[in-house]
Design a protein that fits this description.
The protein is 7% helix and 38% strand. By secondary structure, it is mainly beta. The strands form seven sheets. Strands 13, 14, 15, 16, 18, 21, 22 and 24 form an eight-stranded mixed β-sheet that branches. The protein starts with a helix and ends with a strand.
């Protein structure tokens, strides 16, 4: 342990925990009988100490503060070997194929908000102390292509969620409509470019809860092109009684303004932006500083789908520009999250351990081993890995294990320039998405197919190798569609913005090294500080970021908020490797596997403010592998 730290303290009272410093180490003990993973102020304080006590890089907050970690910019090395995570017994067996997913998702319906949304925050009406909405008069108050749409979601606890009938009903944290029960995933929002959207997020989580998680929220729409005040910055967390270090005060709710413009709005001067920068598959999730992993693990995630004149969401669209991809109700989002359960079938998670808890059961849209009945026609599936740490390689198989083919049309939020046909597998890491089209018309009624994972993973840090299949979701072709399937997958999807070699050559280069540091996870040797920007970039600028993993012992899916980038080059063990076809388009998550480097070209347009880059292995993110970067007005 750091000798300077030992010289200043021999006992700490941390909320419900007392930590005694002894000559041979430290000893935590509860002072009020709370369990180790009890939430709230005491757990947060204990987490601060245990996560880095051996190096003591933290500055402890005062009792009346948020008690969040305050990390020193350059931790001192720790000569004490770090312990490994506890080995957990496997989750109890589940009963497969007895729960059914709905045959179609139900899109969230717009509502009338009261009080009406404004560009200014409304603390007198219960809103938290957010910043002003950027470009409000221009992108909301001025008529757009479509009238504004307003939505409302409440973060709530549902005490009776059933993951699988073999397990007891239990608590989740999810999103609810009105006074309804919370679900995971939350309701799907379907909207369009050119339509301003307000989502009012209410925090109705139990502030005195017991168990892992922390009852503040900061909703991030991944990877929306929005002002920083609506990005879900980790330090912008709030509850009715607490607020993060980058908010002016607590509140019961917060309005997020999603202008639904393409990146390049200022550059194009056409009132909408560059259609080649369109996103399609976005998702919203909690991003609370230090507690993203447990809060999302409890269920706080949902889909946000964006359409435009090309990806119009209407397979019968008469516009010749429309792709006519399979559309609702045959446009179906699917989330995959690894979860671990104790001997009694209850969800468990270690939010103190910097290697977290690797789940051995996979919740598909919140259910373990469910069934989806499908019609004999084409479907568009939007696959999303919500984490916290497992990576998947999906195959579509018959019951005898024979792999079937599908068409891969997009990664992350973006359609490819051209579809990748006759694919048999697709790999996604945490926060990556894959849009695929499966044509069930080639199978007789009664056919059963399985979406399986063949990527073996025995530790949270990285995947192992492709092995035996684990069945995650059963498809049953049980009917013919009520009308002719007019959907298609054309040979040309969405044009990609060209890359200018001269612009790339002139762009500043930043090098970011992702590494293990003092038992936690760091970037360039530093831990996350929400109050300090590690890079400041002029609005309209462009840069090349080098993302570097220095060790073969772990992988990092790196997410950069705000705008998609383009991969310029990749190296593995110092040797250049080709960029695979499915990674050659625009992306917002970049997977560093082993000792590797990825060079990414990024632009920073249309908005200013604070954003973050982090590892989207949520365990690594919560244990400090994140940094703040800012966009400022060009002087």
């Amino acid at each position: 342990m750091n000798s300077k730290f030992l010289a200043t303290v021999d006992k700490l009272e941390l909320g419900t925990w007392q930590v005694s410093i002894k000559a041979g180490g430290w000893e935590p003990r509860p002072t009020s009988g709370h369990a180790l993973l009890t939430g709230g102020e005491g757990r947060r304080s204990f987490l601060k100490f245990t996560a880095a006590a051996m190096a003591a890089p933290l500055l402890f907050a005062s009792p009346d503060s948020s008690a969040r970690r305050r990390r020193a910019p350059d931790p001192e090395p720790d000569p004490v070997p770090e312990p490994g995570p506890a080995v957990l017994p496997p989750s109890p067996p589940t009963t497969p194929w007895v729960q059914f997913l709905p045959v179609a998702i139900t899109p969230l319906q717009p509502v009338t908000l009261s009080p009406e949304p404004t560009g200014d925050p409304r603390p007198a009406d219960g809103e938290c102390g957010r910043n002003l909405h950027q470009r409000w008069a221009e992108l909301y108050a001025t008529p757009r292509q479509y009238p504004p749409a307003h939505y409302e979601l409440s973060a709530k606890e549902n005490p009776a969620w059933v993951f699988n009938p073999a397990y007891p009903p239990q608590r989740i944290w999810g999103y609810a409509i009105g006074e309804g029960a919370a679900t995971t995933p939350g309701p799907t929002i379907m909207t369009r470019y050119g339509q301003p959207v307000i989502v009012r997020f209410k925090n109705r989580l139990p502030q005195n809860h017991v168990g892992f998680g922390s009852p503040e929220i900061s909703m991030h729409l991944h990877n929306a092109h929005v002002g920083s005040e609506s990005d879900g910055f980790p330090g912008d967390y709030f509850s009715p009684v607490k607020s993060g270090p980058t908010l002016a005060g607590p509140g019961q709710w917060k309005d997020h303004f999603y202008s639904n413009i393409y990146a390049g709005y200022d550059q194009m001067q056409n009132g909408i932006g560059d259609y080649r920068e369109a996103l399609g598959t976005l998702w919203y999730h909690d991003h609370t500083f230090d507690f993203t992993a447990p809060n999302l693990y409890l269920g706080m995630a949902g889909f946000y789908l964006l359409y435009d004149h090309i990806d119009s969401g209407n397979e019968r669209d008469s516009d010749p520009r429309a792709l006519r991809l399979p559309s609702h109700p045959y446009d179906y989002p699917l989330s995959f999250g690894d979860r671990r359960f104790d001997a009694g079938g209850r969800l468990i998670y270690d939010q103190v351990e910097p290697d977290g808890t690797l789940g051995d059961k996979i919740a598909v849209n919140g259910k373990i081993e469910p069934v989806l009945k499908v019609a004999a026609r084409k479907y568009r599936f939007r696959l999303l890995d919500i984490g916290p740490s497992r990576i998947y390689e999906f195959y579509l198989q018959k019951a005898n294990g024979v792999s079937q083919t599908f068409t891969h049309i997009g990664n992350d939020g973006n359609l490819f320039a051209a579809p990748l046909k006759n694919q048999v597998s697709v790999r996604i890491a945490v926060a990556e998405r894959a849009d695929i089209v499966i044509d069930f018309s080639q199978y007789p009624i009664g056919t059963e197919l399985y979406l399986v994972n063949r990527l073996v993973q025995t530790k949270s840090r990285m995947a192992d190798s492709v092995g035996a299949a684990t069945q995650l979701l059963k498809f049953v072709v049980d009917r013919y569609p009520p009308e002719q399937d007019l959907s298609q997958v054309p040979n040309v999807l969405r044009e990609q913005p060209p890359l200018d070699p001269a612009e790339i050559a002139a762009a500043p280069i930043r090098r970011w090294v992702f590494e293990r540091k003092n038992g936690m996870w760091a970037i360039n040797g530093q831990f996350f500080n929400p109050n300090s920007a590690r890079a400041v970039i002029p609005k309209g600028g462009a840069e090349v970021w080098e993302l570097v993993n220095i060790d073969n012992g772990w992988s990092h899916p790196i997410h950069i908020h705000f705008e998609e980038g383009r991969i310029l080059s990749m190296t593995k063990d110092g040797v250049a490797v080709p960029v695979p076809p499915h990674l050659q388009g625009r992306k917002d998550v970049y997977m560093l596997q082993g000792a590797s480097t990825i060079r990414v070209f990024l632009r920073f347009r249309d908005y200013v403010g604070k954003y973050v880059m982090h590892c989207h292995n949520l365990i690594h993110e919560d244990h400090a592998m994140m940094l703040r970067w800012d966009i400022k007005e060009d002087d």
